[in-house]
Amino acid sequence: MKRTSHLAITLILLFIPQLSWASELSSDRIDLTHHFVGYIAITIFVIAYILVVFEEQLYLHKSKPVLLVAGIIWAMIAFVYQTHGIEDATGIALRHNFLEYAELFFFLLVAMSYINVMVERGVFEVLRFWLVDKGFSYRQLFWFTGALAFLISPIADNLTTALIMCTVVLSVGEQQAKFVSIACVNIVVAANAGGAFSPFGDITTLMVWQKGIVDFTEFFQLIIPSLVNFLIPAGIMHFYIPHGFPEAAEHESVEMADGGLFTVGLFLLTIITAVSFHSFLNLPPAFGMLTGLGYLKFFAYYLRVKHRHQEQSKQNICEQNTQRSFNIFSHIAAAEWDTLFFFYGVIMAVGGLGFIGYLSLSSEFIYGELGATYANILVGIISALVDNIPVMFAVLTMNPDMSQSQWLLVTLTAGVGGSLLSAGSAAGVALMGQARGIYTFFSHLKWTPVIALGYFASIYVHLLLNG
């Protein structure tokens, strides 16, 4: 009965906005946290995120619900502001959030394009073949794949790195499911830990860097804590890896296509350009990345001209079409558009909730009552349950008054906290699909206490070294 009456009141207020309880904080800002719009906004955001969590079961791309909800939230906010005669505030706030997303979008689009080119040129396939062909033992492969995941993820994102290393594990561990299961746990932890000390390793670190809160070189203060986060669980899991060697198998030789290594060099040059533009010229990192896309486009032109000159017969033409053809726009088009639109929906929706006033309330409670250290530790634990992107964007929107050490701490915890559960990070979710039936939620959960030990140890080391 009480719930029914509350719904009736909400519906009445929906059509009579003049009766709202909103109190104006200033001439152009209204507190909507106790307004029907605020209640509806938080409700539909939760519903949308539930749909995101059950993406695979519903066969519904994760971008769809958040795109819709973001539009509804901002439309409701704009409607209330219009009824109060405040016309410009909503548009200004929305453009501010949209600009933040636009910078993130173009940065990621360039990075994804480079990764797609490196995949197409066979860079990662050659690395995979080298590991498989060396005849390492199970324990050596456990450490090699974990170490490479930790070292590659700061440059290539943690998701791509985890998928490559998982392919290696599956290639050599077909007859040893226990090895595959534990190695996948190790890869997820290593990839997330490696991504935590680089602006390029995770979306959350990229957001912090682009916001200008932490300088590029300051991220490297997290190397040792991140290494601790990886090594402690790995050191314990090592003793549960089976002895022996994988069965020798014949593999076809793999060759890198033209320009593979040069593309890697261009990607590193693009990163240097982005860092230099941001550090020395105070320009957005995305602008440097787009300049780097120009490098790749000119190199693509060179490859196309070179291949065109090599076409001398019908057979050569056929080979060019099947193996050597290179169209840079096809690699740009192959970017993970569902992920990019998901980021848009999340950033705009969370930005709308922040404009309503919920993030200020959350900041006052979490950071005011608990203090920065415990609040930032909690952020990492929440990141294991909810995607770390909306969590970090919420923290950035709250903008609590914290020291540089605390901003580094929340960057660390948001990055590695997702390792506590397999579903807590993109790397874990992807590997559950790739090693289906072997690496599962519960096979990862069995190692959660060990991973948690590494999580809290990394926090302690960070506070000891940098706090």
Distance between the termini: 53 Å
Strand order of the largest sheet: 1-2
The arrangement of helices and strands along the chain is HEEHHHHHHHHHHHHHHHHHHHHHH
How big a fraction of the residues is strand? under 5%
- Strand elements, count: 2
* Distinct helical segment count: 23
On the 0 to 100 scale, the average pLDDT is 82
Structural class: mainly alpha
Reported for the largest beta sheet, the result is: 2 strands, antiparallel
Please state the CA-atom Rg, rounded to the nearest Å: 24 Å
How does the overall form come out from the CA principal axes? globular
Name the poorly predicted regions: 1-27, 319-324
Q: Percent range for helical residues?
A: over 70%
Question: What can you tell me about this protein's structure?
Answer:
- This protein is mostly helical.
- The chain has helices spanning 2-15, 36-53, 55-58, 63-83, 89-120, 123-133, 138-152, 158-172, 177-195, 203-210, 223-237, 260-280, 285-310, 314-324, 328-333, 337-356, 358-370, 372-385, 388-398, 404-416, 426-434, 441-445, 448-466, and strands spanning 23-26, 29-31.
- The chain has a two-stranded antiparallel sheet.
- Strand 1 (23-26) and strand 2 (29-31) form a beta hairpin.
- Helix 20 runs antiparallel to helix 23.
- The model is unreliable at 1-27 and 319-324 (pLDDT under 50).
